[in-house]
Amino acid sequence: MKGFIFQRGFLSAFVVVFHLVLPLLASSENTNINRTRGAAALWLCHHNLSEPFQPAESRIYWQGQGDSNIVVHVYNKGQEEFQTQSETFRNRTKIFPDQLPLGNLSLVIEPVKLGDDRTSSEVVFMSSRTEKVCQWTLYVAAPFQVPKIEIDPTKMTATCSTQGGYPKPEITWKSRDTSQASERTLEPHEVQTSVTLEEDGTYNISSRVNFTESVKSVSCHVYNPTSNQTVSATRDTTDPPPPVSSHTEAIVVAVVAIVIAAIIVSLAVWTYVCCRRRNENGSNTPHWRMASRGLLFYLLCAPVMAQKPVSATVGGSVLIPCSLNLSVHPTRLRFYWQEDDSEKVLFFWDKNGTEGPRAEQYRNRCRAFNTEFSSGNVSIRLDNVNMEDDQKTIWVSAALLDKNNRPVKDFRKECKSTLQVVAPYQGPVLTINKATNTVTCTAHGGYPEPQVSWTGLNKSSAAPLNLQEAQTSSEQNPRDKTYTVTSTVSVKDLKSVTCKVRNPRSNESIEETTKIGVEQLGLSSGAVAGIVIAVVVLIAVGAVAAFHKKHPEVFGQRNNQVCCCQYKVAQQEERNDEEADAAERIELEEQG
């Protein structure tokens, strides 16, 4: 419903803005406009007319520059012509005919598509003379998903993957060494990146780097040059958690959906059976129907009822809903949104169809949907949410006027809402201290102050343990008001620990797990190999000693056999010596 209200009110809201703003603008050339796929692109164009506008004698073309044959929109002799419009822009363009006499030649393209990227256009105004004004180039972006980093400890590689974005991004890798306090940006020759163009025009990115044993963590940064946005991820190289496949995620979602459906059906059946029994006992009122409708209403409307407080993310937009019990023409309605504890006005609507003054901090940030006023919908949308908006309570006051502009019905401080601003945390990053047998968890960039919890696995048990003796501290950045949280816990006698950082306002959690092995606790691979060999030797010696103790006769018989053999060998050697001496004497006697 929110998206429906916004689409219907978007174009109408700009009409009011043009009355106030466009006369102050001068036509500009070669204007670059950056927009996100699916959004609306407003091409602002104001032309100073040298003579009164004559619709029947005027032709206006919004078209491609130079040799381009693109026709975005056509206004010819008092009416719009769509048959000459390029196919790609059909049903996506809108001008403001009632504003043309004022020189407002602005155009809206909605929704923006990836195919519109780098479209260069201009306005050709033809009356008594031909003029080209308001050249512009549209650049389109699609946001990339938050990247995922996979670690291969065998090959010692880190792979960063993301998708769904446009245009081609710039990939930057950074690594943090155990002996360095700051990060090092990897050189281009150290990075291997592959880019795949998908069928929908977006890009799939896979980037890989190698790391050494001294690298503690790596981070991947994906920068979109059109939207000027960067998404990033950081991963500790010592403990890569196994990624969850999309197939597994689909199974989990399906199971949850089946369980929810089963609960709803069970409640409906139970209500039907109970209430029907009541009818059979003498009640004439069809309670089961009322109960079923009430149950259905509750199931469908329960998420909508909890509208206050209103949660908003930093940098995003939030709809502040309000529907008054009235049906009136907009020319008989006057209302304004205001802060509860001050006189600062967010939005003011006068009966004559104009927007009134508002506080400077809300200028160009609030929009209403005047096509919905007749049904009592006076909701507003607040853009570019920032930390200063946090915990502000706002309300709307409205008046229904008669023909003499006298109020016949007043609404005072309706739809009171409190804004609760959140910012997602990044990280966490786990750092192992070998000297103190501790692990430190760090997360940053979030708001409000988070809740940090630790769990661990004991070496002798598979059951997770809640670690309560962590030392946690938070520091708030005075510039952007976000928090950096640091928490340290002892890992003695543990084989792994998990740090969980929870945003109490958005109820979103991020976590990281690391294993506590012998290498993490300060032993090198050579030392580990030596210990293993020594243990094997000791086990072998112990086994031989135990066998000797249990079967001494075996070793005794073998020793006797050895001694006997040695004695026989000695006797044979002695006989050989005697025979050699006798042969030598005989030879000497023969010679004499």
Give a verbal description of the structure.
The protein is an alpha+beta fold. The chain has five domains: 2-141, Immunoglobulin-like, CATH 2.60.40.10; 148-243, Immunoglobulins (Immunoglobulin-like, Sandwich); 247-305; 310-422, Immunoglobulins (Immunoglobulin-like, Sandwich), CATH 2.60.40.10; 426-515, Immunoglobulins (Immunoglobulin-like), CATH 2.60.40.10. Helix content is 24%, strand content 36%. The chain has helices at 2-21, 246-280, 287-305, 525-550, 552-591, and strands at residues 31-36, 41-43, 59-64, 71-76, 79-80, 93-94, 107-109, 119-126, 130-141, 148-152, 157-165, 170-177, 184-185, 191-197, 203-210, 215-224, 229-236, 310-313, 318-320, 333-339, 345-349, 366-368, 380-382, 393-401, 407-422, 426-433, 438-446, 451-458, 464-467, 471-476, 483-490, 494-503, 508-515. A hairpin with a 6-residue loop joins strand 12 and strand 13. Helix 2 (246-280) packs antiparallel against helix 3. The protein is elongated and about 160 Å long.
Question: Strands, helices and their partners?
Answer:
Elements: H1 2-21, E1 31-36, E2 41-43, E3 59-64, E4 71-76, E5 79-80, E6 93-94, E7 107-109, E8 119-126, E9 130-141, E10 148-152, E11 157-165, E12 170-177, E13 184-185, E14 191-197, E15 203-210, E16 215-224, E17 229-236, H2 246-280, H3 287-305, E18 310-313, E19 318-320, E20 333-339, E21 345-349, E22 366-368, E23 380-382, E24 393-401, E25 407-422, E26 426-433, E27 438-446, E28 451-458, E29 464-467, E30 471-476, E31 483-490, E32 494-503, E33 508-515, H4 525-550, H5 552-591
